[in-house]
Design brief:
about 280 residues; mainly beta; Porin; 3 helices; 14 strands; about 10% helix; globular; TesB_ACOT8-like_N; ACOT8-like_C; Thioesterase family protein
């Protein structure tokens, strides 16, 4: 197994970018020349987090747009403050992929609201109870099971094979909910922060929210938006999701997000459907 999802590379110039080599553990289930959406999203979140390191407050909303194929050649990431502020701040980041001619193309972009409000522990409220059983109390496996009764048979290819999963009863749609954690660090030689770790796997919400047959359909998401009520904690993330499909070839996957301490946010992903 790879050492990490990305290997850090020396920057060829002082251009403000960080450079990375994706490993085979980033591979998508949809095509062998693409990365799964999770690792690039997490790489962007890592970059956004570095801009606000040491500040009080937290991210309330993070949106990632996939602008094109996130390829397997060298990736580079750079973040910037879009709207500075002490209480309200907007930050953004872009991920570029090296092309065969040596130029770089922007393949993904993220933006996030970072808020610093008053202490609200005394009025803290969760819209849903915790997702149970917890991962420590259920069977888990590398990748996804081959049992058609528990959703799509994603197997253990590429990125999916670099995750550990388990299924529990869900509240949204017909499918079970999924506990999932990344097996590898995001960047080789680094300890992955809990927020970035969560975003490695949150993109999977779109894959587990339906019983569509991937031999007949693809349903790739063009974006992922996560609204957070608090930072996620720990390596296990619970995804309770459902895919809504309209009559015009697109839909959306909606999900409730959990960690071992309970509910921490919701995700929404625009989905383009296509016949295989």
């Amino acid at each position: 197994m790879d050492a990490a999802y990305y290997l850090p590379l020396p920057a060829p110039s002082d251009d403000g970018y960080e450079y990375f080599q994706p490993t085979p553990s980033t591979l998508s289930v949809w095509a062998s020349h693409l990365q799964h959406g999770g690792p690039p999203t997490a790489l962007l979140v890592r970059s956004l987090s570095a801009l606000v390191a040491g500040r009080s407050g937290g991210f309330s909303r993070i949106t990632t747009d996939i602008l094109g194929a996130v390829g397997l050649d060298v990736n580079r990431v750079r973040a910037q403050v879009i709207r500075p502020g002490r209480k309200i701040c907007v930050v953004g980041a872009e991920l570029d992929v090296r092309q065969p001619d040596g130029s770089f193309r922007t393949a993904a972009r993220a933006s996030a609201w970072f808020l610093d409000g008053p202490a609200t522990a005394s009025i803290e409220h969760s819209p849903l109870p915790s997702l149970t059983p917890l991962p420590a109390d259920i069977p888990t496996q590398v990748g996804f099971p081959d049992d058609p009764a528990v959703g799509v048979k994603w197997g253990t290819v590429g990125f999916i094979g670099a995750t550990e999963t388990g299924r529990v009863p869900g509240r949204n749609g017909a499918n079970p909910a999924t506990w999932i954690r990344p097996i590898l660090p995001l960047v080789d030689g680094e300890q992955t922060a809990d927020l970035a770790s969560a975003f490695i796997v949150i993109d999977v919400a779109n894959g587990v929210g339906t019983n569509l047959d991937p031999r007949e359909w693809s349903w790739m998401n063009t974006d992922t938006t996560v609204h957070l009520t608090r930072p996620p904690r720990g390596e296990w993330i619970g995804l309770d999701t459902d895919l809504a499909v309209g009559p015009y070839g697109y839909g959306a996957t909606y999900g409730d997000l959990y960690d071992a301490d309970g509910f921490f946010g919701r995700s929404a992903q625009t989905v383009l459907l296509a016949n295989q």
